[in-house]
Structure formats: C-alpha cells, structure tokens
Design brief:
two-stranded antiparallel ribbon; 7 helices; globular; Znf_CGNR; CGNR zinc finger domain-containing protein; ABATE
Length: 174
C-alpha cells in the first residue's frame, strides 16, 4: 500500500463534487472493479465524509497540530479501519484496507484515513493545505522536500503568479 497515494486520494476526494452515483463512478474511473459497486448511498456517505475531512486540511494549513491530530483521531474512532496484508503479488507483500461489507464509501474512507494518519505521523501534521489561489478552495497534500507547496495544482500556481505579476506591473506604472 502506498500511503502517500492514499493521502493524495483523500485530497482528491475532498475536492471532487459527488452529487450522485454517476459522479462517484467518475471518481473511481481508475478502479473499474469499484465502479460497478458504487451506489447513491455511497455518494451520500462520502459527501458527509468530505464535510468532516475538510477541517483536517484547514487545521493543518493553519499549523494547528493539536487540531489535526484530534480531528483525525475522531474520524478514526468513527470509521474503524481493518488493515490486511495483501499477497496478490507474493514478491511484494503490503498492507491494504479490508473492504468490509459497508460498500465503496467505507473502503474510500478507510483508505483516506489510513493514508492521512500515516502521512501525519511520518511527515508531520502540517503537510496538508488549502490552495492559496483565490477563489480556489481545493485542498492538497504537500510532499515537497522543503514544505513549500501553496497551491493545489500547477494551474492555480500559474494563475496566482500571473495575477501577482500583473498587479506589480500596474503598481509600477502608477
């Protein structure tokens, strides 16, 4: 299991509107075996989880380590995780989250929480953020070596840099 990939997936989950089963299937396009299991109930449960998870990213962006750990611990208590050793590749044993019987939502929530909890313990509680480019409110996971990420994407970074350049040009011409 790639915990950083699961942590990144949690940011993608928070950023993706999930009004219905169709949108959830779009989120799962790289996992066709899950697409066919997706139900409207999963989308509803994931919308609720999105609202619960966003404050973790906001607390991290604010540098509030205590809030990050408290919020993640509360979510972990509310969504128990069952890890399993996967042997689908005997030469590469690794951890997966057990799917359980609760559906796609339960699996995605478990993966998100395990990925974020591992990331926070390994890299620190301030590696999550909210995009600094107005009006974007997307969240991101910062795995940069010097903890310098401020934007959710290259697009937002470029847009913010161009806006700052134009503002400097206007100020210089006055």
């Amino acid at each position: 299991m790639d915990f950083l990939r699961y942590a990144d997936s949690s940011a993608h989950l928070v950023n993706t509107p999930l009004p219905d089963e169709v949108a959830l299937r779009g989120l799962l396009r790289s996992r066709p075996w899950l697409q066919e299991q997706a139900k409207d109930r999963d989308a509803m449960l994931l919308r609720k989880f999105q609202r619960q998870l966003r404050p973790v990213f906001e607390a991290s962006a604010a540098g509030d380590v205590s809030a990050v750990t408290r919020l993640l611990n509360d979510l972990l208590a509310g969504h128990p995780i069952t890890p399993q050793i996967s042997d689908h590749d005997p030469g590469d044993l690794h951890i997966h989250v057990a799917p359980g019987d609760s559906g796609v939502a339960s699996l995605l929530i478990s993966e998100s929480l395990l990925g974020l909890a591992t990331l926070v313990c390994d890299l620190g509680a301030t590696r999550l953020g909210v995009c600094a480019a107005a009006p974007c409110t997307n969240v991101y996971v910062d795995t940069s070596p010097n903890r310098s990420r401020r934007y959710c994407s290259d697009r937002c970074s470029s847009r913010a840099n161009v806006a700052a350049y134009r503002a400097r040009q206007r100020a210089a011409s006055v």
